[in-house]
Amino acid sequence: MVKEIVERQAAASGVEEIQVDGFDHVEFYVGNALQASYYYSRGFGFDLVAYKGLETGDREQVSYVMKQGSVQMVLTGALTPESEIADHAHKHGDGVKAIGFRVRDAKKAFETAIERGARVHKELEEHEDENGRFLCGSVYTYGDTIHKFIERQDYNGPFAPGFKSVEKKCEGTPVGLMSIDHIVGNVEVEKMEYWVDYYKKVFGFYVYQYFDKDDISTQYSALVSKVMANKSGTIKMPINEPSEGLRKSQIQEYLDYYTAGGVQHIAITTRDIIKTVGELHKRGVEFLTVPQSYYDSLTERVGEIDEDIEELAKLGILVDRESGGYLLQIFTKPVEDRPTLFFEIIQRKG
């Protein structure tokens, strides 16, 4: 059954939490960053707001910063075949390389993580220019994924040093996406507890929820999951591992095609899910389908809700009760060639 875990006061056996204000950005390593930027602009309504590449003097990589609401996605591609970016795209396909954490003190956060056993990806660097002061260092987490510690409260430039502002080169029409609610990672069988302990010991996060195989399963596929969170609730990161079923689970399929643990999906909030999903449908974004039988018994399962059930059924939006209200959510089909990364659109009520 779903278990609500209350460990806030004694998270990670007394380990002091690394203070994280929230998700700063998510960076993808992709095969063609220019085309990916066009997809997220036209399909999801993101604006292209910053860029770096050959025109800015970077001869190794190209990056497009896409923004909608407070969601920032960085689409990065390689300019040379001998690079970490090219290797990552070849091995995994397009996918998430970095989950950026916004912090007030990047030096303290980075040094604390290393002292507690995190493996360095890139040493902490401090940049200071006419736009102010910017700090960033990164550590590894599951698979080839990394966490960046970003300190930018005294920086007023376009995203980060080395980037230039872009105005109306690829301007999207917003669909109402607001903020990142949570980011879900898939890990190998019997590795979930290892990474749960990692987030407890290194970051001081706690287990917010636990789903066993009876909660998230069908006759053919199952998984187990623990949701890691910080005390303020600005960071939520479920960690999934596959469980046995009659067929290969969705989690195992991801691991097979991605060839490692990694980010499975990104959940983004909206204030009006019906309007947002309707607009995404018009733009060609494809979602998982839901049988009509799900909606026939919806009121019996979740009680009265504000939304028109026929409208929810037409769009394929799911409803779940949670403490103090209910949750409206829908999942896209994978947005990459491989059946790996997808998005969740979410609205919380009550």
Instruction: Work out the count of structural domains.
Output: 2
CATH names the topology of the largest domain as 2,3-Dihydroxybiphenyl 1,2-Dioxygenase, domain 1
**Main β sheet profile:** 9 strands, mixed
CATH class of the largest domain: Alpha Beta
Shape: globular
Report the structural category: alpha+beta
* CATH architecture classification of the largest domain: Roll
Radius of gyration: 20 Å
- The percent of residues in helical segments reads 10-25%
> For the largest beta sheet, what order do the strands appear in spatially?
1-12-13-14-11-15-18-17-16
Mean pLDDT across residues: 93
Provide the low-confidence segments as ranges: none
Number of H- or I-type helical stretches: 9
In percent, how much strand structure appears in the residues? Answer: 35-45%
CA(first)-CA(last) distance: 23 Å
Succession of helices and strands: EEHEEEHEHEEEEEHEEEHEHHHHEEE
Find the CATH superfamily of the largest domain. Answer: 2,3-Dihydroxybiphenyl 1,2-Dioxygenase, domain 1
Number of strand segments = 18
